[in-house]
Amino acid sequence: MDEANTWWVNRLETCIHGITLVYTVIQVPTGTVLGTATFAVSHEIELSATSVELDDNAAVTLVASSGVLVSPIASFSASCSAPCNTDDGSGFTLETFTRGETEDAFFTYSDDPSNSADLFDTSYVFTVQPPPNTVPVDPTAEWSTPTDLFRCDDVVSANDGCVIPAFTPELQVSVSTHGAAAIGILFAQDYLPDGWGYTTELTRLADDAAAEANRRRICQDGTWVPDPFVRDDSCDEYAFARSRQSGGQLGLTGADCAEVIPWFDETDGQWYIDPIRYTGQERCSRAHVPRDENSLVGSTLGVLTSQLRLLDHDRYWVGVYA
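Below the sequence we write its predicted structure tokens.
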């Protein structure tokens, strides 16, 4: 059998629509081909960030057939690797196909993490029954999802859930919602060398004490002076204190960071940046931002962490939109 594998993923699902299985039977000892059958297989596997059950919907189509395999009989099964449980891996057994016919197979898997994050994958076996007095060139096809593609955990949020950690999600902030905080992030991404969250991913820091220490190093180092012209001014550090790219994590203090005041000009409807300290070489920034806008970005990050199950060291991007 000839197999092609290209799995497409996002955080909560994966699919493939390009597995081709070619089955051939021959006569022995002449080697004469007595029949061929070509199948196309697709999968759509759905995960939930609030459930440890995975649904795998597969479809098998007999694309072409000839000779003694004009109506082949096939079986299809699946399983998942430990510690995952295969709740239903039967698919179908001894199903007779006619040319152009599609048979659906439904598989379900589940996990039971215990203060852990479990990694696993799924694998498949497709077998065609050889007609009497024939010998299959290769009676069975086997394929699988990429190794450890799926992760279920009970570490993040009140519910257990599963994701595909290979897919890097994006934290989306918008100028219309997050105001000056979004502009401060955009400044750091566009004008500082690391491009944190834009050209270089951020990684989550789950340690609360370490995150608080990062905040103190950047915003309470004795060099922050609130601006009286910024409503309820607060120190908004970037990269985030809850990331491993925070200036505090890099061994820096607030005095090492670029410092800017984002402000909106109501006369022309444009945002501007007033630099207090900026050379273009800083690896961190702090912006003068109204406290509610600063807090809202933190809340948005918390929602992403919960909804897409960001664990310690998980990567994510930060996108700034209008």
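The radius of gyration is 28 Å.
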